[in-house]
Structure formats: C-alpha cells, structure tokens
Amino acid sequence: MKAVQYVEIGRAPEVREIPIPEPKPGQVRLRITAAGLCHSDWFVMGLPQSVMGHALPMTLGHEAAGIVDKLGEGVTEFSVGDDVAVYGPWGCGACDECTRGRENYCPNAAKLGIRPPGLGAQGGMAEYMIVDSARHLVSLQGLDPVEFVSLTDAGLTPYHSIKHQLANLPAGSTAVVIGTGGLGHVGIQILRALTPATVIALDVNEEKLAHAREVGAHHVVLSNADAPAAIRALTGGVGADVVFDFVGAAPTLETARASVRIDGAIEVVGIGGGSVPVGYGTVPAGASVRAPFWGSRSELIEVLALARTGQLKVSVERFDIADAPTAYARLHDGSIVGRAVVVP
Ligand code: NAD
Ligand code: ZN
Ligand code: ZN
C-alpha cells in the first residue's frame, strides 16, 4: 500500500510502498478515506532523534477517518464496512482519566511508550491503518470523511479549549483567536456556535484574515506589535476575556499577555516555543494561563454532533496521496487556507 512516511530525521516526508498491516487481537484495520495534515507534524519532524524518541520510518497522519476493513480477534464493537473517525490521543485505557474518556491526559501513556498514531505510532496517512483498540473509534454517522476528518484534531483541540473557558465567555465578552489556520478557523466557528462572545481574529496573512471573517470573526486584526492596542480599542480599553493562541510563539504570547483583561485567561494551544511569564505584575491581576492538549473522546463525539447541526464547516483543500509531500510543503510555507486533507 501507499503510505506517507517520515523516513529520516531532517528529510521531507515521502510516499512509499509498504506492506498492508494485519490487525492483531483487539486491533482494527481501517481502509482510510481521509487523513488531515497538522502543523504538529512539522513540529515532530523538526525534533532531533534524542527528543523524538521513537523509531522511523513512521507513517504520518493523526487526523484519520476510514471504513472498518478487518477486525482483530475479539473485536465485537464494530463491523466491517462501518464509517468511523479515529480518536487520536491514545492512553493506557485503564487509569481514571482514560476511563473518563480523557485519554489526552493519561498519566501512564508516556511511561508505557503509548503514542498517538502519526505522532509516534504508525499513522493514518496511508491506504490502510491499524487502530490499537475499538475504543479509539467514533462513528461518523453520515458525516463526509473528507470534509470532516479534521474535526478529530483541528476541531477537537479548540473545542476542548473553548469548553474549558465557557464560563468566562458570557454575553458582552470578547474572545481573541491568534492564528486562523487549521485549528483557528474551526475555533472561530466553535466560539460562534457555543458562546455569545465577540470574536477578534489575528493572523499575519491577509488572505487568512479574510477567511477568518468569512467563517465568523466579528473583527480581524493583523498580528504584529500594534495588535494589543487594537484589541484594547475594540474592547473599550478592557482587553479580552479569553485569548486562544493557536501559534504559541514568543510574539503571539506577548500579544496574549498584553491584551488579556484583568481576571481573564490565556489558552496556549499552539506549540510555537514561546512562554508567558506568570507572577505578580507580569500578567493582569487574576489572569490565568493554561496549556491544553487535544481533547476527550466525549468531546470528539460532541464536536462531530455539532458538525451534524450544520454549524461547523472545515475549509478543506484536498490532495491525492501522491501529492502529500507538496501538501506538507504548502503547509510549511503557510499557503494552505483551512486544512489540507489527503485522500488515498
Ligand atoms: P496552521 O499552519 O494551519 O495555522 C497556523 C496559523 O497561524 C496560520 O494561519 C499562520 O498564518 C498563522 N500565524 C503564523 N504566525 C503568526 C503570528 N505571529 N501571528 C498570528 N498568526 C500567525 O497550523 P495548525 O495545524 O492550525 O496548528 C496550530 C498550532 O497548534 C501548531 O503549533 C500546532 O502544532 C498546534 N497544535 C496543538 C495542539 C494541542 O493539543 N495543544 C493540537 C493540534 C495542533
Ligand atoms: Zn494536530
Ligand atoms: Zn490512562
């Protein structure tokens, strides 16, 4: 089968021919219908071997949807032919967090060497994929896999972050979204669907700002050193109730720090290497900073249900599997508007 693989540290991803994998007891094989590209793939491909800590080659793709193709011994929860999406943050399955469906916060996964598909385990950007357990599968229930596969990360991650802040986003409040790419453009729509907040979107790219407005941002602001003043002006001098930073680099976190209101909150979703100083006088009084990771299985079920109401649309640029390396290059140079999705 064809698979998009990260083969060697520092080398761009490649399309390779590899054997179709067989499911072991408890596992499920999917015939992949769609797989999304995420900026985190580039983060992983930028790590030195000592930090990355898992074997190569690795098939990329942590946003995956497919049709159940073959069941490992003992699997009874799904049938061949079912249309499913993959819940990506795999945990131990046995601890309190995993039992609650919050495998994204499993305290045992790292020490047991359990890694998400495409981020350590073999991923979904291939013709077939092995999913370690049926509990990682969620039925698509009629959603088109190409249009909605990215909700497994670009939807789930902002949904988890926004849900945590719902009490801080009442009528009259303001939410700032920094970075309106894959996660950000879905985040804006989730904010509009779940809250009455005014949404201010920031990006460095004018085309992405126009897109942010199309998907529901009330105001758009160019992301630069003047952005905090623009946010203050739009909020009557008060600042933002919650800043969602989908970039997480030093300059965007400085914007977040400088534009959050007293007793407000900063959600650092992007992994761009920046940090926010927290301590007396460094952030406004009462302000909190949180670094969320992905989301829970129940939140994935919820975000898919929200899409079924028609309130979420992922702007998808579709690529054949042979063109996946081009798609990765385009994601790297910032020219994908919305999400790139590979169709094997
Ligand atoms: P993306 O490339 O699709 O979007 C990033 C956007 O940020 C682009 O529109 C880009 O123009 C914009 N941008 C870049 N520099 C900027 C700046 N200085 N100011 C404002 N905007 C700027 O990326 P993505 O796939 O949406 O991922 C976003 C980030 O979230 C990445 O760092 C990714 O690794 C991370 N991520 C984190 C989690 C988590 O669980 N915490 C999950 C998924 C992705
Ligand atoms: Zn991701
Ligand atoms: Zn666990």
Q: Percent of residues in helical segments?
A: 25-40%
Strand content: 15-25%
CATH fold group of the largest domain: Quinone Oxidoreductase, Chain A, domain 1
CATH superfamily of the largest domain: Medium-chain alcohol dehydrogenases, catalytic domain
Distance between the termini: 10 Å
By DSSP, the count of extended strands is 16
Mean pLDDT: 97
What structural class do the secondary elements suggest?
A: alpha/beta
Quickly give the CATH architecture of the largest domain: Alpha-Beta Complex
Biggest β-sheet strands, sense, barrel: 7 strands, mixed
Rg computed from alpha carbons, rounded to a whole number of angstroms: 20 Å
User: What is the helix/strand order?
Assistant: EEEHHEEEHHEEHHEHEHEHEHEEHEHE
Explain what this protein looks like in three dimensions.
By secondary structure, the protein is α/β, with parallel strands linked by helices. The protein folds into two domains: 182 residues, Medium-chain alcohol dehydrogenases, catalytic domain (Quinone Oxidoreductase, Chain A, domain 1, Alpha-Beta Complex), CATH 3.90.180; 135 residues, NAD(P)-binding Rossmann-like Domain (Rossmann fold, 3-Layer(aba) Sandwich). 27% of the residues lie in helices and 24% in strands. It contains twelve helices and 16 strands. The strands form three sheets. Strands 3, 5, 6, 7, 8, 15 and 16 form a seven-stranded mixed beta sheet that branches. It has a six-stranded parallel beta sheet with strand order 11-10-9-12-13-14, with helices on both faces. Strands 2-1-4 form a three-stranded antiparallel beta sheet, with no helix packed on it. α8 links the parallel β10 and β11. α9 runs parallel beside α10. The chain is globular. The termini are close together. It binds nicotinamide-adenine-dinucleotide and zinc ion (ZN) (2 copies). Nicotinamide-adenine-dinucleotide binds next to α1, α7, β10 and α10. Keywords: Metal-binding, Oxidoreductase, Zinc.
